[in-house]
């Protein structure tokens, strides 16, 4: 790890030494920038978007005990889990999601959970990105 606040053992005595130190700083900066870009790419595969919908699949009987929850990464891939609850039994279904879609038929509640998860991501963007939006940039 680089300690930016570590004081050099000696101050540069001439222009050649100063340029050498600047060159070292440039190399460190380029290496750190490459590592940061690598971390950004890897971050897309972390689960970071969650959407949940509670509902009653059986009409007027009971309450909203059933639910669908979507858990997505930065590429809108992940899973949607649905639990259908009634007094006699509870059924749980899981479906894979890739690019916001599934190869399996999705219920309206599952689609809504995915939509909520995708919209929630905008709220979690960095302050810099939010600032760009507020200033009119896109």
> First CA to last CA: what distance?
35 Å
Task: Bin the helical content.
Answer: 25-40%
- Spatial order of the strands forming the largest sheet: 1-2-3-4
Q: Estimate the mean pLDDT confidence.
A: 82
**What's the order of the H and E elements?**
HEEEEHH
Strand composition percent: 15-25%
Count of discrete domains: 2
Q: Runs with pLDDT <50, length 5+?
A: 124-138
Q: Tally the beta strands.
A: 4
**Which structural class do the helices and strands define?**
alpha+beta
Q: Over all CA atoms, what is the radius of gyration?
A: 25 Å
Quick structural summary:
The chain is an alpha+beta fold and 138 residues long. The protein is built from three helices and four strands. A hairpin with a 4-residue loop joins strand 2 (66-73) and strand 3 (78-85).
Essential attributes:
138 residues, alpha+beta, 2 domains, 4-stranded antiparallel β-sheet, 4 strands, disordered C terminus
């Amino acid at each position: 790890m680089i300690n930016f606040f570590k004081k050099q053992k000696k101050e540069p005595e001439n222009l050649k030494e100063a340029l050498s130190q600047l060159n070292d700083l440039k190399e460190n900066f380029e290496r750190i920038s490459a590592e940061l870009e690598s971390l950004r790419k890897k971050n897309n595969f972390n689960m970071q978007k969650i959407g949940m919908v509670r509902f009653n699949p059986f009409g007027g009987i009971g309450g909203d005990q059933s639910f669908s929850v979507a858990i997505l990464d930065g590429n809108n891939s992940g899973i949607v889990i649905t639990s259908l609850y009634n007094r006699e039994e509870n059924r749980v279904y899981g479906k894979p999601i890739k690019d916001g879609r599934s190869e399996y038929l999705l219920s309206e509640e599952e689609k809504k959970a995915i939509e909520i998860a995708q919209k929630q991501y905008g709220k979690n963007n960095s302050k810099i990105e939010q600032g760009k939006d507020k200033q009119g940039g896109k």
